[in-house]
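Reviewers asked in the last cycle whether our approach scales beyond single polypeptides. To address this, we selected a multi-component target totalling 245 residues and predicted its structure end to end. The input consisted of the following lines:
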Amino acid sequence: MEITNQEFKHCHLLKVKGRVDSATAPQFSQALEKITNAGHYKIAIDMSGLDYMSSAGFRALLASQRVCKRYNRGELVLASVPDRIHEALELAGFTELFKTFDDPLKAVGNF
Amino acid sequence: MKIYAAQFEYLDEIREFVAGVARQGGFNDKEIYSLQLAADEAASNIIEHAYEGINDGLIRITCDMQGNEIVITMHDDGKSFNPSNVKQPNLKANLSERQIGGLGLYLMRKLMDKVQYESTPGEGNLLTMRKRRG
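The resulting structure, written as structure tokens, was:
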């Protein structure tokens, strides 16, 4: 799993490539926490390079969304969610918790 | 049968093992992804809960086609597991109330046709999951 973070004027764009499972989810969480610990709560996640995500990844997203949305200070949105991952998010009842965008530019534009 | 150390670093291999049997068995890509996810969730639960993260447990996994059905079994010698003790996640709860636990088991049940647990004192836990090819 590879994570890159790009800072925009109004938000952060986190690109995740590879697989997020119980082994790699802690790194994913850490990357999210690094952004919120620095006081930034507007995050877009580019999932175009994501091959796989288990509930460990979903939990990391949920935890981060809770932090971002607190006091209405921001939110976490998803971009370019692969079909398989979107189906799993739907199954888990998570799709209503996150705005999704077709591509990262639109997601960044949301902020 | 394959034996894996109960560590998250082996999840990749476990998913590959299941995918290989499923591919040979004629499952399509979407089904293969579902099977990998179910196996991952099951194994992760064993590692996290049965062995409570202790390093030297083992998971014995079989994965075979029985006709047009794939049968995956996972055996562990960890803490006795009773699935009725796991609360079903509330998918309608809002963000702050959404519960984090129970998601893995819930997904397994949604992705597979059948999920059964047998827990025998002294013999560990045996999980059997089945899915028919579409």
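The helical segments of chain B are 11-24, 29-50, 103-111. We regard this as preliminary and will revisit it once experimental data from Aim 1 are available.
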